[in-house]
Amino acid sequence: MTESVHAHADEKPPGLWRWVVTTNHKDIGTLYLLFALLMFFIGGSMSMVIRTELFQPGLQFTDPLFFNQMTTMHALVMIFGAVMPAFVGLANWQIPLMIGAPDMAFPRMNNWSFWILPFAFSMLLSTLFMPGGAPAGGWTMYPPLVLMTGDAFPYLIFSIHLMGLSSLMGAINIIVTILNMRTPDMNLMKMPLFVWTWLVTAFLLIAAMPVLAGVVTMLLTDRFFGSSFFNAAGGGDPVMFQHIFWFFGHPEVYIMILPAFGVVSTIIPTFARKPLFGYASMVYATASIAFLSFIVWAHHMFTVGMPLAAELFFMYSTMLIAVPTGVKIFNWVSTMWRGSMTFETPMLWAISFVVLFTIGGFSGLMLAITPADFQYQDTYFVVAHFHYVLVTGSVFGIFGAVYYWLPKWTGNMYNERLGKIHFWCSIVFSNLLYFPQHFLGLAGMPRRVPDYAIQFTDWNQVSSIGGIGFGLTQLIFVYIVFQTIRSGSKAPARVWDGAIGLEWSVPSPAPYHTFQEPPKLAEGELQHEGT
Amino acid sequence: MKQSARQQSNRTLALKLAGITLAMFGFGFALVPLYEVFCDITGLNGKGVKQITAMDPTTVDGSRWVTVEFLSGSNLAGGWEFRPSQSRLRVQPGRLYTVSYQARNPTDQAMTVRAVSSIAPGTAAGYVSKLECFCFRQQRFAPAEQRMMPVRFMVDRALPPEVGTISIAYTLFNSLNREAAPGS
Amino acid sequence: MVLPGLAASPAQADFALNMRQGVTPISREIYDLHMIILWICVAIGALVFGAMFYSIVRHRRSKGAVAAKFHESTLVEVIWTLVPSLILVAMAIPATRTLIAMEDTSDPDLTIQVTGYQWKWHYRYLDDEVSFFSLLATPSDQIKNRSPKGENYLLEVDEPLVLPIRKKIRFLLGSNDVIHAWWVPDLGWKRDAIPGFINESWTWIEEPGTYRGQCAELCGRDHGFMPIVVEAKTEEEYRQWVESRKVAQRSEQALAEQEWGLEQLVERGEDVYNKICAACHQPGGVGIPNVFPALKGSPVATGPVDAHIEIVMKGKQGTAMQAFADQLSDLDIAAVISYERNAFGNDSGDMVQPAQIKSAR
Fold this sequence. Notes:
heterotrimer; B: alpha+beta; Ctag/Cox11 (Pfam 04442); five-stranded mixed β-sheet; 36% strand; disordered C terminus; C: alpha+beta; Immunoglobulin-like; Cytochrome Bc1 Complex, Chain D, domain 2; 11 helices; disordered N terminus
C-alpha cells in the first residue's frame, strides 16, 4: 500500500508546461524562489552600477538621471521582486510541510499569485527602455517629483498594483492555510515559529498592501484625472503622501524581516540541539512588533516639520519597538547558551543574522532619537541601517533557510565547504560594503547622490570594493544550488540530527504530494517543547 | 464530505480576509479626510486658518503686539511677479488689518491662478482669521494684467503668549481648473 | 590604495568617522545625544555578543558540550523586558529636552526665507531688501574629471548665505517645484522645503566660519549638485556685507542700463551658461538625446530672437525648462542669449541688449 501511495505521490505532469499550470505548493515555492534569485541578480547588477559610479568622486559612467533610475529600480526590484517573493517561496514550500497540510488552501489562486509577478516585473523593467527612462524619483515615490516621471509613470503604478495583488493573494492563501489546514493535533501554540511569523506577516500584508495600492492610485489620478490629493494648488498636500505611504511602508519593513525571525528561530534550536528559549514570548514579541509597526510611520519623515507633540509620540513609539526586538535577540542567545552547538552553513547564517541584524537594530534605535535623526535623516547612515536589516538581516535569513531546507527540497546535500566559502565571503564583503556607510552618513554624505565631496572618497572606495566582492560572491551561491541539484550526495529524511518538526518526517526529497492524510504529531515533534 | 466542509470554511475565511483587504484599501482613502482633520487640530503645515464673515470690534487686545510677516512664492512658469506690499506689520490681536499682494501676469495669455496659503508656526494657524483673501478663490489674469489683491485678517486674542511672530506665506500655483488643460 | 588615502588626510580623520559636533548649542546637544545612544548600543552589544560568543566557544559539541534542557524562565524574561525599557526612558528624557528647544522658533533676531529650486537655493533676507540665488560653483570640467578637483569639490557656491554669529536666526523654508531639504551638518539639522507650505527652523551660530552642506531630499537629476554654503560673520562684518550687497544690487541695475558690445555679452553669457544652462543643455550645447534638447544648431537658438528670449524668460510648460525671468537679471539673460546664438557653431552674430529684456518683462 505504501508503495502505491508513494508512486502516486511522485506523479508530475511532464515538460515545461507543468510549471505554468502547476498548483502544487512545492512547484510554486520553487518558482517563487527562482524568480527571487533572478530578481536578486537584476537588482544586484543595478547596485553594481551604483557602487561603480561611487567608486570615485566625479561622474565616470552614468548620467545623474540614470543613476537616480538605478537607485529607484534597485530598491523596487529588491524589495518587491527579491526579498518578498523569496519569503513567499519559503512559505509555499515549508508551511504545508510544517503544519501537515497536503497543499495550500487555494492551489489555483497560488498559481495565479505567482504568475502575476513575471508580468509585473516585465512591465517595471521595460520602463528602462522608455523615453524619459525608468522611474527616478526614489522607490518612495514622493510627489511632486514622481509626477515628473516620463512615459514610465503609469507602468510604475500598474506594476505596483500587480505586485500588491500578488502579495495579497499570497497572504490570504497563507492565512487560510495556517488557520484551517493544520493537522488536528497542532494547535496554534504548537506551531513552529516560522509558521507563526508568517501568519503575522500575512496579516501585516493584508493590512498594509491595500494602503499602498490606494496611495499609488491617488498618484495616478493626480497625474491623469485632475484630482489633487497631493497638489497644494488644489488644496492637497504632498506631505500627506508621505504619511500614507509610510503607514504602509513601516509594516512593509516588518513584512520583510518577520519571516527571517522565524527562520532563525528554527535554525538555532536545531544546531544548538536545545529547544527554542521562550517560545511564547517569541510569539508575543512578534505580535507586538507587528502592532507597533502601525504607529511609528512618521519616524521616516521627521524632517518634514511636524508639531512637537507628534514628533515626541513617534519618537517614543519607535523607541518602544526596541523592547520586543530585544526580547527576541535575548531569546536566541539563550537558546544557544549551554547548547551542544555545531556550525553547519545554516547555523553560520543564523548566527551572523543575530549579530548583524542587531547592529542594524542599534542604528535603528539611534535613528529613533528625533533630534539626532535631524542629522541622520537621508544620509548614508540610513542607507547603512536599512541594508544591515535587509541584507545582512532578511537576505542572510533567506540564505540560511535555503541551506537548511535545500537537502529536503532536492534530496541532495549541498557542498558544505563551498557553503562555508559562500558564507565567509558574504560576511567579509557585506561588512566592507555597509559598515563604512555609517561613517559616510555621519560625516555628511547624503543618500541618492551620484557624486560626492572628496573627503568621502576613501570610505566610498572601501564600500565599492565590498560591493563588487559581495556581488561576485553570490555567483558561488548559484553554483552551489546548481551542483546540489545535479550531483549532491543523497540526504537522509532527517537531514540535521537536531532537526525537529513534521517536514523531517517525510523522505528527502519531499515527495510531490505529502500529508494527503493529516499526520499524527509524534512525541517530541515540536521544536519548542523540548525533547 | 469532510473535504467539502473544509473547502467551505476555507472559502468563508478567504472572503473575510478579502473583505479586510478591501476595507484597508478604503482606509487608505479615508486617511485623506482624517489627515485634514488632524491638520486642522494641530496646525500641521499651517493649515486650519479660519474664514470669518464678520467681526466684533470690541475684542481688541490693546496691550499686546505681534509681528506678522508676509512672504510670497510662485510655482508658476513664465516668471510671474508676486510680492506683498509690505513684508512686516505689527498688529494687535483682535484688530482687523489689510495688506495687499501685487501680482503681474507676464505672459501674453490669460491665466487662472490660485494662491495657497501657509502659516508658520503651525500652532498659530488656528488663531489667524481672514475676513477677505484672494486665496479664497482662483484669480483670473488677463494677458499682462497687473493688480493688487487684498487680505483682511486679524489675529485672535487667544493666540498663545509664546508666539511673537507669525509668518503668512502665499504661493501661486496654476489653477487646477482643467477645462483649459491639454489632454483632458 | 585605500590606506594611503586615509593617511594623507589626518586632519579629516575624525570628521570622516563620526558626526560633526557643529557650531551651535543645539548641534552640540545633538552630538551628545548621538554619543550617549551610541555608547548605550555598544555596551548592550558587548554584553549580548559577549554572551553569545562565549557560548559559541564553550558550548559546542566538538568540546563535548551536552545540551541543557531549559527553555524558559519568567524571571529573566521579565528582567530583559524591564531593563531595556528603563534605559529607553532614561534616553528619552534628554532627547525630549533637546527636541523642545529645537522647535522653539520664537523671538528671532533675523529671518531668512529659503526657497528650493531644481537645482539651486534662493535666499531672501526679510529684514533687509537682500535676496539672491546660490548655485553650485564647481566647474563642470571637475565633475567630468577633465580637471583636478578642488578642495571644496561640490560643496562650493557662487553666493554663500552670509549670517551673523550669536544671533537667533529663523529660517522659513519653501520650494518652487519639488521637495528639497536644507541641510548644513554644522548647524545640526535638516528641514524639508515643500512646495506650497512653509516650514520653520532656527539656529544660533557660535563662531565665525564657513559651513558647508547639501540638499538632502532627492529632488531630481541634479539633486547631488545643489550645495549650501553658510558664511558666519561677526555682527559688524555682517552689516558691512549687507550694505555692500545692497550697493551691488544697485550697480547691477546700472550695468543693465548700458549698451553692451557683442564680445562682452558673449563673455558674460558663457559664465552664465556654464553655471545655469550647462547642467541640462550640456557644455558645448549638445544636450542629452530625448531628455534635454541640444542648442547647437537648434531652431530656437538659430531662429527668431524674440522666440529665444521668450523661452528663456518664461520657460516651456511641461518640461524641465524653467522661467528664468525671475531668476536672472536683465543683463544675464541678454548675455546668455547672445552667447547661445554665437557659440556652438551657431555664429549668428545676433546680440541682445539688457534693455530688450527689460522691455520684454
